[in-house]
């Protein structure tokens, strides 16, 4: 994911901790329905800071992501296997480091923890990540913080593989001598940790990598990416005593990644920051322990070298003179990979002779041709095949089988099975494609086939984040969306509409609101102005400071009367005259009966006196007020964790869903013969946080996920399908979109 993701995901994680108590509690007896779960295919989509090949088995590799958990490459079926679908602790989906065992191919360890104020643990598996033993640890991690491209911080002694070392961000060096079951701080290590810093987004690079030299028993190296002082340390007696290592680049450059070749020489990449953003300079150096000599092998050393640093580093297992490094934050001309066959004396810049085939994930062709990539923090050469190499980017992972060959080098996304995206919103319309989505960082998609990566993402305008989506209930080909970019101000229109169900879009310009007295930008400039479409598709209503409507696709606009400023509006899905909203100042429902031109107060009964828990203030939050497709005036409203229903356009309300504290909910096609639409919810019942379904209007709920399908409990949105009973879509924060069908029915 790109630059602003940490702020969003940290806020989401905090909100989920509030809603769910941080960790889903153990399962209790509950009615359930068996469901079959499948990922909606996009392919990659986010930042995977590190890829590691098993050193002992061909075709075995592991990938760590910053918010979507870990994956294992399964060579026989030819796809990546997610290893944390059963995980219920949100923080454990941010992987700080991963380490396949150097002796036993079945063993793998990983360090998991998303941020410094969130739970952290060391995971151990004896079946390649199929099952994990989880050991909570007292040192904090930052799998989704700045510096997540550093590493690897977790290392296994190849000669005594029950011994592990972990270089932490804030608390120096730690050791386990019983395969990760217990950990103790290495008090003899000469560089103390800085402790957790104040500030929500503040962090440290800490100890950036730990490396064992397999040729010398007891020898290991540890690097520090904290500013000042000595940055590299060596032990020749298994960590009992340590020596600071002088030499190398000036102390303004920080060691970020390192690798030891079969010749025992250490190759280190350096940056002037921990990244993944803000790096301006870097270097590559080699250190030979035999003579203590350092050598600068930086590919571009001239004063006019492009801005950026070096991070990824790899050495061929067959020939230690074949090394590769990657740049990071080199936007001009582009991040690249360099390859040398003579230990860094000469370099080949691979970007210049590479092509990319992104046919399986065509969204990468944003500008007509996929670029080489950005945030290339992870780089690896297959230890069993020197022609097979891979590197990660902020949006995908590329691999080639031509790494050692001359001529044009072809790279393809190596992402089958990886769904590493943050979903902001989604909708399943009453016609057209079954799913239209809004993503963070990569806009979103129209999925005609849930098993195929769509041909393109939302464009015209291209907005990195799609914040709201709506469709006309009687004319579902008419859709609208709002969005924002990574910059504070959207450079062009933040709104768009579609006449073909989201396949193509047209920008929608809205007259600017008067400037704010405090100088803050108006909502249409930031993407905060949501948009709603009437049931017949004739009217668009935009939530600017003073709400406006257009009935001619943006040619002319009129102000809405009686609608409070900056409240989320819902259109009836069947009656084109009606729109609904909440006047929070007066704690009442307001409704339009003339297509959005005027709103009036509705005399309502059955709602709580205080409606403020339903107030949506964040542009990415889901609307708590939903209208039912095909049933005019049938409304649903979530107030806090409680659900209310009105069958008469908001005049009378009945509380339903008792016993379930709802965090997110959505509507789907009714069960055969049922009066009410199917309800789908993420919430807590009798201490169990899970995914639930009701087919009787919320009176009774059945669990539809199980303990093997929890995806870190990092959810953003849920919705049923109005055309297919039982189908539900879940948008996660890091594991893409999942869809579920009643077990057995998915093949119908």
UniProtKB/TrEMBL annotation:
Keywords: Carbohydrate metabolism, Glycosidase, Hydrolase, Polysaccharide degradation, Signal. The keyword Manganese does not apply. InterPro entries: WD40/YVTN_repeat-like_dom_sf, Xyloglucanase_GH74. SUPFAM superfamilies: Oligoxyloglucan reducing end-specific cellobiohydrolase (SSF110296). Residues 1-29 form the signal peptide. The keyword Ligase does not apply. Gene3D superfamilies: YVTN repeat-like/Quinoprotein amine dehydrogenase. Residues 501-527 are annotated as: Disordered. Belongs to the glycosyl hydrolase 74 family. This is Uncharacterized protein.
């Amino acid at each position: 994911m790109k630059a602003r993701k940490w702020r969003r995901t940290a806020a989401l994680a905090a909100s989920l901790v509030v809603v769910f108590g941080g960790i889903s509690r153990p399962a209790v007896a509950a009615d359930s329905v068996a469901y079959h779960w499948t990922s909606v295919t996009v392919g990659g989509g986010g930042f995977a800071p590190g890829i590691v090949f098993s050193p002992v088995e061909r075709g075995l590799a592991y990938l760590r992501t910053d918010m979507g958990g870990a994956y294992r490459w399964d060579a026989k079926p030819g796809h990546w296997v997610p290893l944390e679908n059963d995980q219920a602790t949100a923080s454990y989906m941010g992987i700080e480091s991963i380490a396949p065992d150097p002796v036993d191919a079945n063993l793998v360890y990983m360090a998991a923890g998303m941020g410094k104020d969130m739970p952290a643990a060391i995971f151990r598996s004896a079946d390649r990540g199929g099952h994990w033993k989880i050991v909570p640890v007292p040192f904090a991690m930052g799998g989704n913080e700045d510096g997540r491209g550093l590493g690897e911080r977790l290392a296994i002694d190849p000669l005594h593989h029950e011994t592990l070392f972990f270089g932490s961000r804030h608390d120096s060096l730690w050791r386990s001598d019983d395969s990760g079951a217990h950990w103790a701080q290495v008090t003899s290590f000469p560089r103390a940790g800085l402790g957790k810093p104040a500030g929500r987004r503040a962090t440290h690079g800490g100890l950036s990598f730990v490396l064992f030299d397999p040729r010398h028993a007891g020898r290991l190296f540890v690097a520090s990416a904290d500013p000042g002082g000595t940055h590299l340390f060596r032990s020749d007696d298994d960590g009992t005593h340590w020596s600071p290592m002088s030499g190398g680049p000036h102390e303004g450059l920080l060691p970020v990644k390192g690798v030891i070749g079969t010749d025992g020489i250490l190759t280190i990449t350096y940056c002037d920051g921990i990244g993944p953003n803000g790096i301006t300079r870097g270097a590559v150096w080699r250190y030979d322990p035999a003579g203590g000599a350092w050598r600068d092998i930086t590919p571009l050393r001239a004063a006019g070298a492009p801005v950026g640093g070096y991070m990824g580093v790899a050495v061929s297992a067959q020939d230690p003179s074949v090394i590769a490094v990657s740049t990071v934050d080199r936007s001009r001309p582009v991040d690249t990979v360099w390859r040398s066959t003579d230990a860094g004396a000469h370099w080949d810049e691979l970007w210049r002779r590479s092509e990319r085939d992104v046919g399986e994930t065509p969204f990468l062709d944003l500008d007509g041709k996929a670029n080489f990539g950005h945030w290339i923090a992870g780089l690896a050469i297959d230890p069993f095949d020197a022609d097979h190499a891979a590197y990660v980017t902020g949006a995908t992972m590329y691999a080639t089988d031509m790494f050692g060959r001359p001529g044009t080098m072809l790279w393809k996304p190596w992402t089958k099975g990886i769904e590493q995206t943050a979903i902001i919103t989604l909708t399943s319309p009453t016609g057209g494609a079954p799913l239209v989505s809004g993503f963070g960082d990569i806009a979103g998609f129209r999925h005609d086939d849930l098993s195929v990566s769509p041909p393109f993402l939302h464009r015209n305008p291209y907005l990195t984040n799609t914040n709201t989506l709506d469709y006309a209930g009687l004319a579902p080909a008419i859709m609208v969306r709002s969005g924002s970019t990574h910059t504070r101000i959207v450079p062009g229109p933040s709104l768009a509409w579609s006449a073909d169900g989201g396949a193509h879009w047209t920008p929608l310009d809205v007259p600017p609101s008067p400037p704010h007295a405090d100088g803050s930008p108006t909502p249409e400039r930031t993407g905060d102005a949501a948009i709603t479409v009437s049931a017949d598709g004739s009217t668009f209503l935009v939530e600017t400071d003073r709400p406006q409507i257009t009935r001619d696709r943006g040619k002319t606009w009129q102000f809405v009367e009686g609608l409070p400023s900056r409240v989320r509006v819902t259109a009836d899905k069947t009656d084109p005259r009606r729109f609904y909203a909440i006047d929070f100042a007066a704690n009442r429902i307001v409704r339009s009966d003339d297509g959005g031109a005027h709103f009036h107060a509705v005399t309502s009964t059955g709602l709580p006196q205080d409606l403020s828990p339903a107030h949506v203030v964040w542009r990415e939050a889901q609307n708590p007020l939903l209208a039912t497709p095909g049933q005019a005036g049938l409304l649903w409203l979530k107030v806090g964790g409680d659900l209310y229903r009105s069958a008469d356009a908001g005049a009378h309300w009945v509380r339903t869903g008792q016993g379930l504290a709802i965090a997110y909910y959505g509507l789907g096609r009714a069960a055969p013969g049922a009066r009410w639409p199917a309800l789908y919810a993420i919430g807590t019942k009798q201490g169990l946080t899970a995914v639930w379904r009701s087919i009787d209007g919320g009176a009774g709920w059945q669990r539809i996920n199980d303990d093997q399908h929890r995806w870190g409990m990092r959810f953003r949105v849920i919705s049923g399908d109005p055309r297919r009973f039982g189908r539900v879509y879940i948008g996660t924060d890091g594991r893409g979109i999942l869809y579920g069908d009643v077990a057995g029915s998915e093949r119908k």
